[in-house]
């Protein structure tokens, strides 16, 4: 098969429905936990010992993110996107996530404390942690994943 014929053959884009369903369940549980969880004990974070559904939402979401990153980057590497271009996308998305997290925490903190100083800035938030973990995982995937070629 000539390279031009190979590029002409397009694979139909499919979504992994099981991952989408799990992501939807995770987000629904996250919203439910954030708004009180109907006062059920298993929708409240455990104080120290024990484990509840509320304690599993963040690790579930990070697992979903890791699987999605691997699938997405593999697909982009197959379609001949350069590693440098992928890294720039990863860096940009990470900066956006961390910046949004700092911005949202600053707005919420300013409402509660009536202070806008840099000393009251809260850096270790949820979005910042997601952005940092995304950057680490996606960078490793971008640099270390073997380039595969798709043949029909």
UniProtKB/TrEMBL annotation:
The protein's name: Heparan-alpha-glucosaminide N-acetyltransferase catalytic domain-containing protein
Swiss-Prot/TrEMBL keywords: Membrane, Transmembrane, Transmembrane helix
Annotated TM spans: 21-42, 48-70, 90-107, 127-145
Entry-linked PANTHER family: LD22376P
Stretches assigned to the Heparan-alpha-glucosaminide N-acetyltransferase catalytic domain: 15-138
Entries under InterPro entries matching the protein: HGSNAT_cat
Entry keyword Transmembrane helix: yes
Keyword Transmembrane helix attached: yes
């Amino acid at each position: 098969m000539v390279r031009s014929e190979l590029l002409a053959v397009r694979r139909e884009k499919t979504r992994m429905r099981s991952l989408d369903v799990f992501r939807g369940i995770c987000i629904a549980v996250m919203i439910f936990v954030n708004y009180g969880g109907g006062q059920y004990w298993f929708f409240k974070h455990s104080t120290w010992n024990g484990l509840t559904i509320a304690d599993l939402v963040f690790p579930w979401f990070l697992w979903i993110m890791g699987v999605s990153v691997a699938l997405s980057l593999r697909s982009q590497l197959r379609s001949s996107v350069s590693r440098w271009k992928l890294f720039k996308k990863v860096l940009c998305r990470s900066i956006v996530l961390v910046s949004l997290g700092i911005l949202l925490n600053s707005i919420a903190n300013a409402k509660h404390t009536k202070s806008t100083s840099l000393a009251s800035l809260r850096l270790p938030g949820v979005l910042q942690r997601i952005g940092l973990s995304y950057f680490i995982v996606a960078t490793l995937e971008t640099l270390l994943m073997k380039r595969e070629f798709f043949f029909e």
